[in-house]
Specification:
4 copies of one chain form a homotetramer. By secondary structure, the first copy, chain A, is α+β, with helices and mostly antiparallel strands. Chain A has a single domain, classed as Alpha-Beta Plaits. Chain A is 38% helix and 29% strand. Chain A has a 4-stranded antiparallel sheet with strand order 2-3-1-4. In chain A, a hairpin with a 4-residue loop joins strand 2 and strand 3. In chain A, helix 1 packs across helix 2. Chain A starts with a strand and ends with a helix. The interface between A and C is medium-sized, with 31 and 31 residues. Strand 4 of chain A pairs antiparallel with strand 4 of chain B. Chains A, B, C, D: Belongs to the UPF0045 family. Chains A, B, C, D: It comes from Pyrobaculum islandicum (strain DSM 4184 / JCM 9189 / GEO3). Chains A, B, C, D: Pfam families: Thiamine_BP.
Chain lengths: 100, 100, 100, 100
């Protein structure tokens, strides 16, 4: 069960390289290790969450890890789909968008 | 002082009207009453915040108010600019973008 | 080859229902029929594109279809990753984020 | 008159500095010189536009200028509010959000 599906994009700024794979991979590791249900996309990672607090805790972990890698500025883009009338699931949202 | 500038867009879905002014005004009221430094734009409201937890608490308040108005689904878009190397201020960011 | 990966979210407003599956499925149909390489996510659809004009043409088609369905207001969120130094591919971006 | 209000954020990647003021100022210059009605925010610049093609042309100009400055990767976040039932104005949207 999930009360919201959050689509998260994390971009470290000022790293001096157009390649951000190293940082993005670390962010994926943190999400995976958190035990949350997620799915990686090209622009955003979809994550099933149950509260805004849970999102805040995840962002804290991501910031800590990136700062440990030397990052001094982070840009996040977050889209939250929060339904009160029913549970949300990543796979169900995708199946419906595909008309399956 | 602020550790991050958050640009927040809140859209209630399924309200049955193309006009969302009533809901958007309520969201602005919540931000104003929270005592945070903010600035309303056409697409996003910029807010100075000090932690992701503070953002989570604000989203909880917004959700509670919209649900009390009968809203059953909410779409948020959030851009977070988090600098570790210096404090961020809404007015300073705008002045620099304008080249003032 | 693709010069940019665009992550696109399309939300019809004022439809009177919290369910948007019918509209979202139509948008996916348009993207599929356009022959572009794409991948559906829960929050965004990733699309490989070669110019901003191509994106504009796609948005025109989407608007036309939604308006034909009776939609009177549309909210789009678009993230564009544009690299000048190398070609971008959806699958490669995902593989790198997953550390594969 | 404007058929859409576009909120635009432009971030050059791989510049090697956490400060992006120089690039952001250039983007504001391009928007100003284009003669479009706009308003600078901390996270996004709101712009009144009449077509997706007009947006594509603006992004082309911005890319050209940033590439001339040496930028090799650009991340854009774009929110488009498109109403078919009425004209949109930046100032009116802000006034309504503020409850004026």
């Amino acid at each position: 069960m999930a009360k919201m599906v959050v689509s998260l994009s994390v971009t470290p700024l000022g790293t001096g390289s157009t390649s951000l794979s190293k940082h993005v991979k670390k962010v994926t590791d943190i999400i995976r290790e958190s035990g949350l249900r997620y799915r990686t996309g090209a622009g955003f990672t979809d994550i099933e969450l149950d509260s805004y607090r849970q999102l805040a805790d995840l962002l804290d972990k991501i910031e800590k890890t990136l700062v440990d890698m030397g990052v001094q500025r982070i840009s996040y883009v977050v889209k939250i789909d929060r339904r009160i009338d029913k549970e949300l699931f990543i796979e169900e949202k995708i199946a419906r968008a595909e008309g399956i």
